[in-house]
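Just scan this pair:

***
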Amino acid sequence: MEGLEEKLKGLSIARRARPEEPTYLLDVALQPCGLLAVSCSNFTIHLHNKDTLKLVGEYQGHSGPLCGVTFAHTSSDLLYSGSADGTVRVWDVRRPGTEAVQKFKSDPSHCYCSFDLSCSDSLLCAGTEQVNNEDSFLVFWDSRKPGGGLLGVYSESHSDDITQVRFHPRHKDRLASGSTDGLVNVFDLSQGAEEEALLATCNSNSSASSVCWSGADYTQLLCLSHDEGLHLWDLGQLETNEPLTIFSTTDARSLTPLADGGGVDYLVGGRWLEEAQKLLVVGGKNSGDLHLMKCDAGGLRLLRSLEGGHASTVRCFLWDAAEEALFTGGEDAQLLLWKPGGEELTTGKRESMKSESALRLKSRPHNKHGYHREKKTT
């Protein structure tokens, strides 16, 4: 099988799409049948044809910042979106422009800043912002129940905004959560009660921005922080005396993985590439250039730089393994498709489109207290 580096070396811009109005592109999700969903800072969701990037639909309904989009695994015509307006909504992508077919809510005081759907599509979880300067909550629903069957909440494991929740790709009851309190928690939801369900607490010593399951059996966990820290832990060592940390840096910008001897300005995110058995971490320069890196026990190593695409900060990326293609979206309002040997049909680099409509969700300052809260750690 062709190595990952060779696949990435062939990438070039094949398609470029821009919305009619300036808006940050915050998150992207891929439907196996050929649609691409993008959440935008103007609270809308755009549907694109994944091959042409042509806009084929738009959803409006959320009244607050979006915190992500994801397609259901077993019913891929259903698209989920979460928002700080206190709802997770479900859209039928066969009917673009229609109202949500289902809505999940909890307490009126809850503003969601993360959500995810289990691999079996049976369980939905959202993480809230801190409520009344006290608690933050993991909220659970039975996604199969009409009207949104609220199952309950966890309230003791985080003390600040829960910025990311990620279900395990293979185990429907395994959940990881990250927070601005600096903690990354791992739960076995089959245990029911929160205290029994908490399997491990890892401390990133900074405000966690994202978590990602990785490794051959998805026993590893990658955590990125808002100040560009990176931590890779091996949860397979929980029952041993071996350390959990595979690699850790408090500031990935201080590393020099780039060809010119410099470092990235920020980290976009990470993704485990199943076919290549590699953990891909994407970083960027403020100019819009992207850098694709491999992450393992040896740290970060540059695989490929992508230049001439974006004009400012990139917010999201997605790797399409079937097509060996990369999608990227950013603050310049551009959605790009990078493919092996791609030749862009339209030329010209987009100027930065930062505007009043562009959002505060991921760029807003986060409260960084609570790191040293006494808690079970491993």
In short: Confidence is low (pLDDT under 50) at residues 346-378. The CA atoms of residues 17 and 335 lie 5 Å apart. The chain is about 5% helix and 45% strand. The longest strand covers residues 266-273.
